[in-house]
Amino acid sequence: MTRDIAINHATVREKADMLAFIDLCAARNLRAVSIWGDEIDKVGEAAAQAALQQAGMTVYGYNRIGPFIATELDKAPAQLEQAARFGADHVLVFTGGLVDGEHDLKAARRRHEDIIGGLLDQARQIGVKLALEPLHPMLVGDRTTLASLSHANAICDALGDGIGIVIDVHHVWWDERLEEEVARAGKAGRILGFHVNDWLVPTRHLLRDRGMMGDGIIDLPYIDGLVRATGFNGPVEVEIFSDDWAARDPAFVLDTVVQRCTQIFPDLVTP
Amino acid sequence: MTRDIAINHATVREKADMLAFIDLCAARNLRAVSIWGDEIDKVGEAAAQAALQQAGMTVYGYNRIGPFIATELDKAPAQLEQAARFGADHVLVFTGGLVDGEHDLKAARRRHEDIIGGLLDQARQIGVKLALEPLHPMLVGDRTTLASLSHANAICDALGDGIGIVIDVHHVWWDERLEEEVARAGKAGRILGFHVNDWLVPTRHLLRDRGMMGDGIIDLPYIDGLVRATGFNGPVEVEIFSDDWAARDPAFVLDTVVQRCTQIFPDLVTP
C-alpha cells in the first residue's frame, strides 16, 4: 500500500496562484492537491479545472465553509456545489469564534453545533462530505469554538453519516487523549484527512508560525502511526501557515516538503 | 462569606521588588500575596519576612518548583522548606517541557508524573501542599507537559493527599470539559487556587500577553461560579503575565486590579 503527498495551497499561496501551484505540484509528480475557494475565484473556475485536468490531478480537501456568520454562511450552498464540481474528497468546516462582545463560549458551541447540523443537511443533498478540523485551543475565541478531537468526535457521533474529522498535528499533538480520540475517530471510519507540519520552539505567532516537518518538536512518526493504525490510508496533507515559508520561493518550499515527507513518512508514492 | 484578593507578584515584578510589592498591597488593605523564591532572594529572606509581618500579610502561593531538570530539582527541598517558613498555603509545581532533542511527549509525561510523585514525598515530610497548575496547550513542549485539568485530576487521583490543583482561567477557559473537571477537582477537595486574568483578542504572544480582567473574552463570572459551586472559598488570585502591564506604574496596575475584581467577582473583602 502506498499513499500520496497532497499539498495544501495555503502553504505557498502568497507567491503562487492556483495555476502556478498546480504546475509546481505536477512537476513533482504529485497526484492530489487541497484547494481554496477564494483562490479558485482569483484565476477563474474554468482555468482552475483545466489546469487540474491537464495535470491529471485530483482535489483532496476543499477549503472552506465559514466562519459562521450570516454573510459567510449564505455562501455555503454555492461552496458545496463548487467542491462537488471539483470532485473534492471533503469540505473543511471553519466555525470561527465568538462574535463581537460575546462571552458565552458554551452557548457559542451549541450554536455552532446547530449550524454544523444544518450544513450537513445541505452537504448530504449535494453529495459531499464535511470535515471538522479541531483547531488548537489557542485559536478558541477569535477563530474557532472546536478545539479538541473529543469535541469533534462527539459532534460526529451526534450527527451520523456524511461528516468526519481532519486531524492536524499542529492542533492536536499536545492532547493527552490523542491516542484514544484518534482510535475513536478511526473506529467510526470518520478520519477524512491527516495534516502535517511541525510545532516550533519558540512559536512566535499563534497563527502564522508553523514549522516545516522535522524543524519542530512533534513526534510525527508516532502520530502518523496512530492514524495509520486505524486503517486510514489517505494522503499525507502538508499545510504550513508560516510567514517564513510563505516568503520563500514556492519551488524550494515544495522541494523541501517532498524531501521531508520522504524522510519522515513511510510508503509514500515516490515523487 | 467573604474572600480576599491575592495578587501574584509576577504581575508587577518588573517594576516593584518584593518589599515594594508588599507595601503596595498593604496600602490597598490586601491581606494575602503570592510570592516567588527568586524575588525573595533579591531582597533577602529576613527583609521579606519582616515586611510581611509588619503588613500583617499572609502568603498564599509560593512559586515555584521546577522546571524538571536536575539542577532545578536539586533545589526543591530548600524551596519547600522556604515555602514552609513563609507559611505558604501551597507550592506551585512547574514541570517545564521536553528536553533538547526530545520528541516523545508521552514518555516525558510519564517521567514528569514520576518526578511529581517524588516531590510529593518531600512535600509531605516538610508539611506543605503541592499545587499542579495545568498550563495552556500552547505551552506544551517548551514550558509544560501538563495542559489540562483532566490530566491534573488524573495525577492527583493517583497520588492521594497533599497535592491539588490551581485553576488559571487563561489556561483552561477553552476546555469543553471545564465544568466536569472543575467539579471533579472540587469534589475531591483539591482546588488550591483560582487565578484570574483575561484572554485578549488578538493574543500577540504565547507567554506575555495576558489581559487585565474585563479586557478580554473570558466569561469570568461563569468560571468563578463553577469554582465557587464546589465550595472553594479561597482568594481570587490575580496573575497577569503581560509586557503591557509590566511596563506600567505598579500602583496603577494594582488599583486597576482591585477595581476590576470588585466589579467582576462577588463577595470580596472590600479593600
Automatic annotation (TrEMBL), chains A, B:
GO molecular function annotations of the record: isomerase activity
Question: What are the Xylose isomerase-like TIM barrel domain coordinates in residue numbering?
Answer: 33-247
Q: Which superkingdom does the taxonomy of this entry point to? A: Bacteria
What SUPFAM superfamilies does this protein's entry cite?
A: Xylose isomerase-like
**Does the keyword Isomerase feature in the UniProt annotation?**
yes
Cite the InterPro entries for this sequence: IolE/XylAMocC-like, Xyl_isomerase-like_sf, Xyl_isomerase-like_TIM-brl
Keyword field: Isomerase
Q: Can you say what this protein is called?
A: Sugar phosphate isomerase/epimerase
Organism of origin is Aquamicrobium aerolatum DSM 21857
